[in-house]
Write a structure and sequence with these properties.
The structure holds 2 protein chains of 2 kinds. Chain A is mainly alpha-helical. Chain A is built from 13 helices and 2 strands, in the order H-H-E-E-H-H-H-H-H-H-H-H-H-H-H. Chain A has helices at about 15-35, 40-45, 65-70, 70-105, 110-120, 125-135, 140-150, 160-190, 195-200, 205-235, 240-245, 255-265, 270-300; strands spanning about 50, 60. Chain A has a two-stranded antiparallel sheet with strand order 1-2. Chain A is globular. By secondary structure, chain B is mainly alpha-helical. Chain B has 2 domains: about 5-55; about 75-300, MetI-like fold, CATH 1.10.3720. Chain B is about 65% helix and about 0% strand. Chain B has helices spanning about 15-55, 55-60, 75-80, 90-120, 125-140, 145-155, 180-190, 195-205, 210-220, 220-240, 240-245, 255-265, 270-300. In chain B, helix 10 (about 220-240) runs antiparallel to helix 13 (about 270-300). The chains are: A mainly alpha, B mainly alpha. Chains A and B meet through helix 1, helix 2, helix 4, helix 5 and helix 6 of A and helix 1, helix 4, helix 5, helix 6 and helix 9 of B.
Chain lengths: ~300, ~300
């Protein structure tokens, strides 16, 4: 070890530590191989077959992918998922940003107020989905009752194709808000008070301090929350499963993951379901790469 | 937010400065009122759930659904609990506790081991391997749903009716003992903040990596371990898709699939359903109130969504 680092392959204490490292990593390596990374490749292989699990798979090339893009249900799922993403993500982020700014105060009882906004994030979409199904219920649901006070006629929120996705989006925003608020609050609390003071001395008003001090410094948090919200939105399933008629979403609410679930585990078309899963994978991968590329344009690191 | 007026020595006649302070006070008061109102609005689904769970069915569908219940009808809870012929809701609850606990143990043990290797031990390919692990963080797990299902379907199980792992609890916890990207990332960040001199000193004293891990790193990482434990518990507790795919018999159901099953069985029985939803939410709500600090820290640190 004099003058240069011994290579890990050589004998001595470092080689021993390398052996220890692989020992520590053994469970993770098995998991990567058979549970997470490896199966992505396997999923692609399966997507090239017709396979109902009862008979042997038959190779069909890219037929499943061709069939997908001619499948009305799949295209509807794609459209619904896109609608869900482009509404829930930006609305959720803007609301969370405003809330984080408002909640970033030293006032008595602020911890309690914050708890109220955070609480939905620990709930299961299944349980709160039941409550929202009840809130949206056309006959005696809370929402229609409240609207009746203002003379607005009752709506069939979940079974009306026009309102079904917005109803799911509203519930998801309610549930996911706290997560983004927490990340933004952490980002805001990392902004040194002197920055605001300096901006105030330069004559910046409230808006100026937000626009030119807080917002640029929050861009890393925004970037981070944005990508997570985006990936999460493409995986929407539970809300749809519970809200949109028990287990049977119509074309108004079917999403990509529901489509994969339906084809794979109700219809037992493993190849077709895997092809759908791979489309989901490619969409998320492309979005992530593009998102990271755009990062340089608007994210400021201190 | 704004620094106290006294900090900025502006020469102005007294009354107008007092006026400015009053405007600030009013503005802040309005803001607090809005925040409280918003917070209450966020809680409406919870209030509504509790209220409904204490009503009779007649009250729920009656002429004044917004009214308070005529006395608390606690009987909805036992009614919900014993609604199914062969199993009680307690079975679902027990299954959820079992799976959440096993997952938590598995993740704590194997993620902390991997994180220690990535943070402290030298080995060839450390960077690329960590990169691959991180990349799996952004992969939607639904992509590997089918291959995983097929894997478990090919694993024999003498204790299962299907002869393989389908229909058993095993697919819902065994993989948690094979590491995880989130936990490894979280703990590695924490381990990196521990001065490496501590490990070096232990090495000089003749400690092997296992002893360094066990007696130096783990005790120091307690807050991060608590964060990982809480998140793993919550994610398992709230998971719907995986139990839906793997579980077959009612007596193996978790609270989430149990509730979804309820929903299909008890259309319109809102009081019982709300009671069930509340019971299944209770552990997470209690955990959150007790350990909010760890939730907040975990999310702020890693920004992971549930």
């Amino acid at each position: 070890m004099v003058g240069r680092r011994a290579g890990p392959a050589r004998g001595g204490p470092l080689a021993a530590e390398t052996r220890w490292a692989w020992l520590f990593l053994a469970p993770t390596l098995v998991g990567l191989t058979i549970i997470s990374a490896g199966p992505i490749v396997a999923a692609f292989g399966i997507s090239l077959t017709d396979w109902d699990l009862l008979t042997a798979p038959t190779f069909v090339g890219l037929d499943n992918f061709a069939a997908l893009f001619a499948d009305h249900r799949f295209l509807t799922a794609l459209r619904n998922t896109t609608f869900y993403t482009v509404t829930s993500v930006p609305i959720g982020l803007v609301l969370a940003l405003g809330l984080a700014l408002a909640l970033n105060q030293q006032i008595r009882g602020i911890a309690w107020i914050r708890t109220a906004y955070f609480l939905p994030l620990v709930t299961s979409a299944t349980a709160v989905g039941l409550v929202w199904a009840w809130i949206y219920s056309p006959s005696s649901g809370l929402l229609n009752q409240l609207l009746a006070v203002f003379g607005i006629p009752p709506q069939r929120w979940v079974s009306d194709p026009f309102w079904a996705m917005p109803a799911i989006v509203a519930m998801s925003i309610w549930q996911g808000l706290g997560t983004s608020v927490i990340i933004f609050l952490a980002g805001l609390q990392a902004v040194p008070q002197e920055y605001y003071d300096a901006a105030a001395v330069d004559g910046a008003g409230r808006w100026g301090r937000f626009r030119h001090v807080a917002l640029p410094l929050l861009t890393p948090s925004l970037f981070f929350t944005g990508i997570l919200a985006l990936i999460g939105a493409f995986q929407v399933f539970d809300q749809v499963y519970v809200l949109a008629r028990p287990g049977k979403p119509t074309d108004a609410t079917v999403t990509l993951v529901y489509f994969i679930y339906e084809k794979g585990f109700s219809n037992f078309k493993m190849g077709y379901a895997s092809a759908g899963a791979w489309v989901l994978f490619v969409i998320v991968a492309v979005l992530t790469v593009v998102y990271f590329r755009l990062q340089r344009r608007w994210v400021h690191y201190q | 937010m704004t620094a106290p007026a006294a900090a900025v020595p502006v020469v102005r006649p007294g009354p107008s400065r007092r006026g400015a302070a009053r405007i600030r006070r009013v503005r802040r008061g309005v803001l607090v009122a809005l925040l409280v109102a918003g917070g209450l609005a966020m809680m409406i689904p919870f209030f509504w759930m509790i209220l409904t769970s204490l009503k009779t069915r007649a009250e729920v569908f009656g002429t004044a659904p917004l009214s308070l219940p005529t006395g608390a009808h606690w009987e909805n809870y036992p009614k919900m609990w014993n609604a199914l012929p062969d199993v009680t809701f307690g079975t679902f609850f027990f299954n959820s506790v079992k799976l959440a606990t096993l997952n938590t143990i598995g993740q704590l043990v194997t993620c902390s081991m991997a994180a220690f290797a990535f943070a402290v031990l030298p080995f060839r390919g450390r960077g690329p391997l960590f990169g691959i692990l991180l990349a799996t963080l952004i992969i939607p797990f639904q992509v590997v749903l089918v291959p995983n299902f097929i894997l478990y379907r090919n694993l024999p199980a003498w204790w299962s009716a299907s002869g393989n792992w389908i229909g058993t609890h095993e697919p819902l916890w065994v993989a948690s003992f094979l590491g995880g990207a989130f936990g490894t990332f979280l703990l590695r960040q924490f381990f990196l903040s521990i001065p490496i001199e501590l490990a070096d000193a232990a090495r000089v004293d003749g400690a092997n990596p296992w002893q360094i891990f066990r007696h130096v790193y783990l005790p120091l990482a307690r807050p991060a371990l608590a964060t990982l434990a809480i998140f793993t518990f919550m994610w398992t507790w709230n998971d719907l898709l995986n139990p839906l795919i793997y579980l077959r018999d009612l007596d193996s159901y978790t609270t989430t699939v149990g509730l979804a099953f309820f929903q299909g069985q008890f259309v319109g029985k809102w009081p019982e359903m709300m009671a069930g939803a509340l019971v299944s939410l209770a552990p997470m709500i209690i955990l959150f109130v007790i350990a909010q600090k760890y939730f907040v820290r975990g999310i702020a640190l890693s920004g992971l969504k549930g």
